């Protein structure tokens, strides 16, 4: 796939190609500006008007790039599910969060209001959200980022998509919420058996959840391999640099914390 | 929400009192003696000091300032703004019908401006950067920069004189509305259209629209959500547009001989008719407060976050 800015002609992502199999998790790693998010949005065909893309996006044999806009819309949510970076901004600020769930599920399944509430309540319970029905009547600003993030995961559980794209789902959260959201994402994979693309710049998170890793820099894929391969013996200098930077930080941190050895992030 | 409505409405009361005090005080800073104005208006040939003192007593001008203010305020609340110095008739009998006429013109214009700028604003925001958006913006820029007096004159010349389709002036029939409303709409819609467009555009790149799309919601529903969120800017702007246009129709009213506030105030200012000027300023300032309160209430209904602030 190739993505470029049509107003300036600047290429944002060069010919990049990767695949995710059913039940596996692929992590896309790289600095900010390396083209991770643009790639994710390109898969959903949701980049802004000035971003153009070419190439194929195959999902279960269907080329998403060839679909009409209406067919693509039916695929979004139902087959491809996005989990956004910032839960606080992902929901319409002037409607209760429940209205988003109702609109989405009604759109794809045509369920009644009570069916939607009971299914969502069950899914929200499974991501450890207390009192789901009351939460659905709250406005986004009345909830925390971690709660909203888990609500997006709950919606994904109900939607049962083929592929979940999690675009830096934890980087806007504090460490504790980050931990909880990661647990839920791992559980979500186990529960639905779906494929997942996990975008992050945090290598320790990647190590926990991913089966395969793609390393991106400046719109190019530098390296592609299984998590074990990349972490044990990477060939590319840039990836080594990323890993070393992380190890240096950890050493520094544990020195300052008085030599605590269990710190691994 | 009910609590918010009550608090917000009560908050407007002290503001109105301050405004009324300033209105009253400003008129009294004027170097002219009202008693003299009254005597001149009555055509008294020889204005003597004794005559002035007598008139002052009749007008109650010899009493202390604060007592006069309290008296004036109490009668204002009953819509009794005193008598005009020039015609001697109650101010409200002059101001009331004029206010109603201007209000009719203003409301029709505001509705036209609202319909045009909201419609075009949404359309242009959704088609940002394309030909439609660029041409609408160009035309609106051109129309907004035309002086309304010149535009009015040209329209009278073409539609009323040359084609003889529409009346040149007056408000005898509903056709009389067409030209003044068009002039006002053309002068203001360009400005308000830009505000709607840019507030819609800022919503276009919000995360929630991306997430709504990613969940497969139809564009129609997403546009409605964006509209609801961008309306908050628009509501304040349009609520304030009513008093702004109310106060600035003078030019258009005088060109189309509209029997509204414009003509009345210009005559009162030239004739130093203090009670009328005072009442006009008070009514206009009060309408700002009223519409501002109204916009806050509508916004609170639209935006749950605002309700908490009180």
From TrEMBL, chain A:
Alphabetical list of NCBIfam families matching this protein: opine_ATP_CntD, opine_ATP_CntF
SUPFAM superfamilies for this protein: P-loop containing nucleoside triphosphate hydrolases
Places the protein is found: Cell membrane
Protein name stated in the entry: Nickel transport system ATP-binding protein
Keyword Iron listed: no
The organism of origin for this protein: Paenibacillus silagei
Organism classification: Bacteria, Bacillati, Bacillota, Bacilli, Bacillales
Residue ranges constituting the ABC transporter domain according to the UniProt record: 1-243
Membrane topology type: Peripheral membrane protein
Pfam families: ABC_tran
Broad class of where this protein is predominantly found: membrane
SMART domains for the chain: AAA
Entry's family note: Belongs to the ABC transporter superfamily.
From TrEMBL, chain B:
Domain ABC transmembrane type-1 as annotated: residue spans: 99-295
Chief location category: membrane
Keyword vocabulary terms for this entry: Cell membrane, Membrane, Transmembrane, Transmembrane helix, Transport
InterPro entries: BPD_transp_1_N (IPR045621), CntB (IPR050036), MetI-like (IPR000515), MetI-like_sf (IPR035906)
Keyword Methyltransferase part of the UniProt annotation: no
Location in the cell: Cell membrane
Pfam families named in the record: BPD_transp_1 (PF00528), BPD_transp_1_N (PF19300)
SUPFAM superfamilies in the cross-refs: MetI-like
Membrane topology: Multi-pass membrane protein
Chain ranges passing through the membrane: 105-126, 138-159, 174-193, 233-257, 277-302
Database matches in NCBIfam families: Opp1B
Family that this chain belongs to: Belongs to the binding-protein-dependent transport system permease family.
PANTHER family: DIPEPTIDE TRANSPORT SYSTEM PERMEASE PROTEIN DPPB-RELATED
Protein name as it appears in the record: Nickel transport system permease protein
Source organism per UniProt: Paenibacillus silagei
Lineage, highest ranks first: Bacteria, Bacillati, Bacillota, Bacilli, Bacillales
